[in-house]
Design goal:
By secondary structure, the protein is α/β, with parallel strands linked by helices. The chain is built from five helices and ten strands; from the N terminus they run βαβββββαββαβαβα.
Length: 266
Amino acid sequence: MTRLTEDTAPARVSRARTLVVPTVSAANVPQLAVDLLLHTHGVTRVACVVDPAVLPAVGADALGTGAHSLSTACELFCDDGDVAVLQLRAPLVPGTGPAFVRRVHAWARRFLNGGHGACVVWLHSSHAEEVGGGGPLQPHLGPTGADIEYALARSEPSVGLAAALGRLGWSAVPTDDPRREAGHVVHGVLDAAADSTDDALEVVVLSSTVAEWSAVQDGATLATALTTLLAELAAADGAGGGPAGAARKTALNDWRQPPSWTGLLL
């Protein structure tokens, strides 16, 4: 058990350069995508996290690893590569979102990559009517075939991040998009990041539009987009031997469905 405010963190976290955090948003697609990533690549749970912003919850083992019998509201996972994951399985206490985001960013800045610069990738899912103010959905298709957009906390991201996003061909969330309005999850992440981000921390939000009729397709699409970005970031960082572990790009057909996906609509 650990807290984001503690003075220590699991040792392997210091080797990670990127932290992935799902928001609780449309159809829980970010949580589904993260479970897919964790299960397929066998990423290890290194701590259960307790935070005053996260509502308590407990449930069956979501990943079927056999190493533990329960899943909790907030868990930290890390492999031996470049990626750490903070999986959220419960919503936040209303009004605590900005403070929670600031704690996550402060923790990442302090412990990831030995405190020498890191990136936090937040995952978000939007209903179709949120995009374009309720008008017709205008997909922005990249190499994954996904309707993926991104938003950055800094107007001038690092050369590596800018190059990675440029190669992927995704569009930025427009400045007049409803997702940037006060009270929205994406706005909350970016607003809190603006208060706490410096040159040592990159913050990016990946936003996926939910198709409504297929949680399986939506989750796999977002997971594939995530690993595509992680592989690009690892390559930009000059990771020896190429991207490893959860940072390996994973195609749509290569995912292994975890127990948490049981019963999802196809």
